[in-house]
Specification:
Layout: H1 2-11, H2 13-16, E1 21-23, E2 41-42, E3 45-54, E4 57-65, H3 68-89, H4 97-103, E5 110-111, H5 114-129, H6 139-145, H7 156-162, E6 171-174, E7 179-182, H8 195-209, E8 214-219, E9 222-226, E10 235-240, E11 248-254, E12 257-263, E13 268-271, E14 274-277, E15 280-281, E16 286-287, E17 291-298, H9 301-314, H10 316-326, E18 329-334, E19 339-341, E20 350-351
Antiparallel strand pairs: 1-10, 2-3, 3-4, 4-8, 5-7, 6-7, 8-9, 9-12, 10-11, 11-20, 12-17, 13-14, 15-16, 17-18, 18-19
Bound molecules: adenosine-5'-diphosphate (ADP) and magnesium ion.
Amino acid sequence: MQRRAALFLLACIPFFTACAIIPISKSSSPPPPFPSAGGGKVGSSVTVKRAQFLMGTLVELTAVAPGDVIAQAALTAGFQEIRRLENMLSTWIETSELSRINQAAGLEPIGVSAETFDLLRRALEVAEYTEGGFNIAIGPAVRLWNIPEAPRIPSAMELEIAAQYVDYRRIHLDQTRRTVFLEKPGMRIDIGGIGKGFAAEKAAAVMRENGAKGGLVAVAGDFRVFGRRADGTAWPLGIQHPREPGKVLAMLDVTDEAVSTSGDYERYFLKDGVRYHHILDPQTLQPARLCQSVTIIAPDATTADALATGVFVMGPARGMALVERLGLGAVIVDAQGMVIVSSRLRDRVTLSP
Ligand code: ADP
Ligand code: MG
């Protein structure tokens, strides 16, 4: 099963590279403060980049460090961290903490690591402030739709049954005993909307601990950036156009921030001219219809990832109001293709003509 998914995703990599955010080499950027030595070395810093297939997707890590040995060690530690988290959190792995929680739904609370507990606590927090738009109890509905593996529209009856198991308030976290309990048998946590951001955040911290002065962690459409590039400049990122593959919709420079995009163009199928994609509205259990893409800029990647999914469901009006209230940044493309930029980002984002 796991292998089938991996192969499918591998086959889709050219498609996914069109994923949400594209690191850009800018020709128009100001001259770097250090002489450019070309290749991976500028001044006294080197830049090393490696990619691996982890968490069912392409993970790309870039490290800037005083020397090649340190940069390579930081990358190796970063990949190891993501693999460790995958073993802890993947529902493809039967022994993972998350699988054990799901297997024990309706039966008993499961003791978990501080990290898993923290991730679930954060997920439930985001569920509250997105008014249930972000909902990790969505698992049974995600399984029914099974996008993109088996494109099929579930029947109204199937969705009605699934609706009985997607109430995130029935996920009980016990802080003192550090346990997680799903109240009803049949409930199922899905961390697809927050797990990659969580992993990106942790990997960036580990790379820094291992000597990287700057770095970029890209787990599909979830980006965490720290420090600066070898030439001292910020990291330019491009946001993918949701309807024109390979075209950049907007650009912005980032340092010490996370950028996550959720879109309806990454995993979807078309039937009778209707697009069915992988971000579900927990109210209807149908694909959310109010946006084409949502990019969130936040201090940490866990928040950025979860909020991108949640704001996508909330739609441009309520979603942007939330982003403004939280003091974060967002670029939202609404259902008609109109681009809306939050107040904090207006001076930072350059929209493509
Ligand atoms: P991607 O996984 O493509 O980066 P997202 O971060 O938006 O995109 O996560 C989408 C995934 O989150 C889905 O594949 C599914 O596993 C899960 N999901 C779907 N709808 C919701 C929702 N309303 N709230 C939380 N998670 C969701
Ligand atoms: Mg997300």
